[in-house]
Amino acid sequence: MARVLLYILLTGILFLSACKPDRAPDTPPVSNDYVFKQPDGFPTPVYDFKNNTVTQAGFELGRKLFYDPALSKDSTISCGTCHKQYAAFSDVGHHVSHGINSLLGTRNSPALFNMAWSPTFFWDGGVTHLELQPLAPITNPVEMDETMAVVVTKISNIAAYRPMFKAAFGSDTVTTQAIMRAFAQFMGMMVSNQSKYDKVLRGEASFTPDEQAGYVLFKDNCAACHTEPLFTDFSFRNNGLDTVFADEGRKHITQLNADLGKFKVPGLRNAAITFPYMHDGRFETLEEVIVHYTNGVKNSATLDNALKTPIVLTSTQKAQLVVFIKTLTDNTFITDKRFSEPVK
Amino acid sequence: MRKRNPLFTLFIASLVVLAGCKPDDRNDTPNPTNNTPTGKVVVKVNHTFGTAAFDFTSTFKNPSDNTEEMKFSTIQYIVSNFKLQTTNGDWVAVPESYFYINGKQSQSLSFTLKDVKIQDYKAVRFLIGVDSTRNVSGAQTGGLDPATGMFWSWNTGYIFFKLEGDCPQLITPFGSSNFVYHIGGFKGQYNTLVWAEASFGSKILSVKDGSNTILLNADVEEVFEKPIAFELTNTPQITLSGPEAVAFALNYADMFSVTNIE
Fold first, then answer.
1. What is the DSSP letter of A146?
2. Which residues of A touch B140 (CB under 8 A)?
3. Which of A203, A261, A195 lies closest to A228 in space, CA to CA?
4. Which residue among A71, A206, A263, B74 is least crowded, i.e. fewest CB within 10 A of its CB?
5. pTM score, two decimals?
6. Which pLDDT tens digit goes with each residue over B215-256?
7. Are A132 and B156 inside 8 Å of each other by CB?
8. Is B108 part of the contact surface with chain A (CB cutoff 8 Å)?
């Protein structure tokens, strides 16, 4: 009798396992690597993952899309073309972005990480939602120059995508929303918090004396705008680059004269590997950037108050500041296989 | 009401409200709950230019100028946040009502209001555009799918209304005779959201089981007439939110009327 019961029980268990949804026999178990984890010391993300819970299937779909040149009009460039993982997803070495047909954009391609915390996107903050961010480079005539309607058709016609959409969102119908949510999962998971700086804060490492001195200088002179732990306060400021503005910056969005020549304060994590710097990529090195703030700030009507008095640093202090900024480089992030181009 | 020949005298958009950032919910009764019986209302959109039929091949004269000739290539807009007015005056919101209209896509010229509370109605009101909430809620579907092109990808927000075409009297700084009006913006003083409102005149929309139909007319000539006598040569292009877009939205706010209830 006991044996019969045992058989019934075992059969039941087999049935139950057979009923597990959407799991092919060879699929690895769900990994903790594809769950959004709130980093210690970071604020609550701006992007609400409750409406778009990260799954491995959704993340992998976003990853495939990120590296797929089918998103551009002539199928030559992908997001990954201008956002290279080894450079913290910036377009290292390019002053401004390069689009299809070698067209040049007007602004420096930003690094990508910690986007879940960003209330706005782009140098002028024109885009206000992570799910809507990819629309801009896809449709920009000097970037990917494609329409979303054509992107949806192109992706629908690539057989490999159908099961991925089904696994990620329950339907193999390709929609703008599904594409954007997959992107948001992939990009939202790009968290950079494994730099030496982070390890020092967690007590897992310690600064050298120069790094420590640089950190103190940073807090005194830079942190008002480049606020820890994300190293930006996400505000828009005129940092004194020009007196006449070839790019009107934030004003392009708000149409307010008070916003002329203002650009978003960039986060400085990984700054050492995301050169060149500023919205137009005019500075090649961190040293040049620091010299701008000590000696190069130009006055204009919208110049930020914080820069009206020049920052004073000795050459030793400048070097210490650079050494500190280098502790913000996150080698774990830039080599994380989850974010690399999938093998074709 | 010259130029109009619908079944009954029209009342259009007497109430043009700059809608603020949110749909106007005053005097609304709550949305029907799941238990309340509901019906469907089909809305069919027809475009005219004054008394003439609207199309993309004819040449139309600007009524405010009488020399400017216009041949249209695009008319697209979003209508949303439908409300129906009961015969006793209450406005009842139709949940999740967002529709994309494209003059060149016949399937877009007919759409269905679902979950309409069963009752008798005498007027309809809707937003031309998208409420601020949905402007900032991430990637949307259906009538709000950014793939329609009704979206500013570089400055988050929907384009509420698009009108494009050719006017031979026009020479833009780019040397073309094309006019391009992309109207949108939902923030502060440059909010271009406008309510359209149309009475059913002597007719009653009696929502029961099965569907009823509202025949909605959109008179493109109204875009050029009032409050501002709009001349294309003065303003050949509007593609940003701002004061010109606000003025243009006030001009098109009164283009809708109801010609019949079936």
1. -
2. 177
3. A195
4. A206
5. 0.84
6. 999 999 999 998 989 999 889 999 988 899 999 999 999 999
7. yes
8. no
